[in-house]
Amino acid sequence: MTTHETTRQAWDEASAKHVREHREHLEQARTWSLLPIEEELLRPLLHGAKVLHPQSGHGLDDHALIRLGARSVLGVDYSPTAVSAAQRRADELDVPCRYEVAELPESGLPCESADLVYTGKGALIWMADLDAWAAEMHRLLRPGAHLFVYEAHPLVPLWAWDPEEARVREDRSYFATSHVNDTFPARGATEHQVTLAQLVMTVLGAGFELLHLAEHPEPFWRPEGDEPAAAWDGRLPNALSLLARRS
Questions:
Q1: Are 131 and 124 a contacting pair, CB within 8 Å?
Q2: Block means of pLDDT (10 residues each) for the chain, length 247 residues?
């Protein structure tokens, strides 16, 4: 089995969690909200917007986007299990969210079909070719539309989850191109790395105008039941937010 196949299988198996926790996710979706910085940046852009959510995962954020004013959300994920679970939830709650299976960067969607691309929270690390992904997002957005990313900071793979001391893992490098995931979904999945500079230059190179870039100390995800890591105590970057406009 290739590295890509191992990663895809690991993610599809991990997505079974969304099926097992359907009732819990159904209740969460009724009141789910975005992070404050997301709401601040996206609220002015969402009224009547057709949103594309690549790497949509469990899809809970899509319900928050609808409540903030989006007309519809199309989620795309390469896990049939994740897509099926998210569609079932949307159907039961009667919200205008639709989900499709596609392996990015080739989405198969029509050009200039979205007003906003919303993604992140563990999405970009699975993209082996970020340049091709950014080019596809540019193709799918209408002129003047926006790309929004809230994602783990590129330094996050370096942080050890030691509760006593914030430190860099000896087995990781900021300038590595990939590493084997050992948290979630694990199972030998491979994460792809880029530096902050590479991410920004990729977005600019695809034809976007950068409107906002900020670094945040709080991680977007923490494993359940573990003691908080010292790397999360507010001294180190653990997330970033990026907003860009298609030229």
A1: no
A2: 79 79 92 97 98 96 98 96 95 98 95 98 95 98 98 97 95 96 87 97 98 97 87 97 97
The count of structural domains within the chain is 1
Q: Which residues contact 198 (CB under 8 A, 6 or more apart)?
A: 130, 154
Record the tokens describing residue 30, joined without a space: 């009724």
Residue 100 CB neighbour total at 10 angstroms: 14
**CATH code for the domain of 128:** 3.40.50.150
Which pTM does this prediction carry?
A: 0.95
Tell me which residue range forms the domain holding 172: 3-246
| Conformational region of residue 57, where left means phi above 0, alpha means psi within -120 to 50, and beta covers everything else | left
Q: Cα angle at 221 between 162 and 227, to 5 degrees?
A: 35
Q: Position of tokens 């819990």?
A: 24
